[in-house]
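Try this one yourself first.
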């Protein structure tokens, strides 16, 4: 990774063993271990007891990083290359890939399904739980924002006022 990523990789003992939500959120070793272990990073793995999951921590403690200046941010294009390899202890390469853009960049967009799943995951931690009907309604409105005649309909749906 490039120099910017160092902030999310160092100090390595803390990034491998986050003690708080914030440390987990800003830890590439922890995020990689969570994704490999759980399939997708979800909020529940970055809060409370989630950051104490032994299997994730064991894998995070095997993650190492190398500074590669060629992976620095290109401010003209937004390109931030990153390379990842998964190797066995004997050095056998199981997986290797380079990405030029972060997930969610216009060059590497998130699908509507993945975005909706992520939104639902976030809503599960909302101060005001929404019914499935309200969640579906909200997703429909946000997906078709140009057709929403009055933004107050969205605000009312997500506000703390009883509706």
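Now uncover the answer:
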């Amino acid at each position: 990774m490039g120099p910017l990523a160092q902030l999310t990789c160092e100090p390595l003992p803390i990034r491998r063993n986050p003690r708080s939500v914030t440390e987990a959120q800003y830890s590439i070793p922890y995020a990689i271990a969570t994704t490999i272990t759980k399939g997708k990073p979800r909020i529940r793995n970055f809060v409370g007891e989630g950051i104490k999951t032994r299997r994730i921590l064991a894998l995070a403690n095997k993650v190492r990083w190398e500074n590669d200046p060629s992976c620095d941010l290109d401010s003209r294009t937004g390109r931030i290359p990153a390379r990842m390899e998964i190797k066995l202890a004997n050095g056998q390469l199981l997986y290797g890939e380079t990405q030029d853009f972060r997930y969610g960049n216009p060059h590497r967009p998130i699908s509507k399904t993945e975005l909706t799943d992520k939104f639902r995951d976030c809503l599960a931690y909302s101060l005001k739980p929404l019914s499935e009907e309200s969640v579906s309604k909200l997703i429909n409105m946000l997906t078709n924002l140009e057709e929403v005649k009055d933004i107050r309909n969205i605000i009312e749906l997500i506000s703390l006022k009883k509706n």
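Discussion: The beta strands are 82-87, 93-99. The first helix runs from residue 12 to 16.
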